[in-house]
Amino acid sequence: MRRAVLLLSGGLDSYTAGAIVAAGGCDLYALSIRYGQTHAREVDAARSVATALRVKRHLELDVPLSAFGGSALVGEGEIPKDRSIDAFEIPTTYVPARNTVFLSLALAWAEVVGADAIVIGVNAVDYSGYPDCRPEYLRAFERVAALATRAGVQGRPLRIVAPLIEMSKADIIRRGLSLGLDYSLTHSCYDPRADGRPCGRCDSCILREKGFAEAGIRDPATS
Question: Do the Cβ atoms of 63 and 37 come closer than 8 Å?
C-alpha cells in the first residue's frame, strides 16, 4: 500500500492499526467522526494520535447519528457498567450502522486522495459483540466497494485492511509497544468522568484493563 485512509477514533486499536500500516511505508490520511457520541473526548485523543502518527492530513467530520438515537453511546439509555461481556449479546452501546456509515465516508475520501485501502481497527477476538466488527462484514463491504466506485470498476478495488482482526487486546498492546506507541495519548472509555479520566467500569474500560493486565503492563492512561 502506498496510501490509505485510517478511521481514527482516538482509542488504542485505531492507533495501533494505523501504526502497523505506517510502519510498512504507507502514507496515512486520518478520518475522525463526531457522531454525537457521549464520549466525545475521544476526538481530542484522535488529534494527539494523528500527530503522533504523522498523518498527511487529519479530517474531522460531523455526522450526527445521535439524531436517530438507538444507542447508549449517543445518549439513549445508560452506559452499561460492570457487566460480564458476552460476544453473542449485542449491547446497548451498539450504534446502528455506524461502521457502515464510517466506511462509506472513508471510501469516498479514499477515492479522492487515490488511496489503495481503508484501515480500520476492529477486532473480532476481544470486543463487545458488535456485528459490524466481524471479518465477514468487512469482506462484504470490500465487495460493495469494488462494485460502487470508479476505482473498483477500473480494476483498482480498494482493500479494507483490519490488521487487528484476529488479535487479542493483549497482543494488540504488545504489538503497539514494539512500535514505540504512547498509549497515554489514547482514550477508550464510553462514559468518562467529569475530569476526563476513564470510568473503569464500562465495556471498553474492562476490555482495555484486561488487555494491559494480560500483557503484564500498566496502562499509562490510568497510572
Answer: no
CATH number of 3-215: 3.40.50.620
Mark out the alpha helices in the chain (DSSP H runs): 12-23, 41-53, 98-113, 135-148, 150-153, 169-178, 203-215
* pLDDT one digit per residue (tens) for the chain, 223 residues: 899 999 999 999 999 999 999 999 999 999 999 999 988 889 999 999 999 999 999 999 999 999 999 999 999 999 999 988 765 688 899 999 999 999 999 999 999 999 999 999 999 887 667 899 999 999 999 999 999 999 999 999 999 999 999 999 999 999 999 999 999 999 999 999 988 899 999 999 999 999 999 999 999 988 7
**Cell of residue 141, nine digits:** 463491504
- Confirm if 160 and 21 have CB atoms less than 8 A apart: no
Contact 81, 201 (CB under 8 A): yes
Hey, where are the domains in the chain?
3-215
The C-alpha cell at 156 is 483498482
Please give the single-letter amino acid code of residue 72: A
Q: Report residue 32: phi and psi, to 5°.
A: -115, 145
Between CA 10 and CA 14 the distance in angstroms is: 7
Can you name the residues that pair with 58 across neighbouring β-strands? 30
Whether this prediction's pTM lies above 0.85 is answered by yes
The span from the CA of 10 to the CA of 44, in Å, is 7
Cα–Cα dist 159/117, whole Å? 5
Cell numbers linked to 181? 506507541
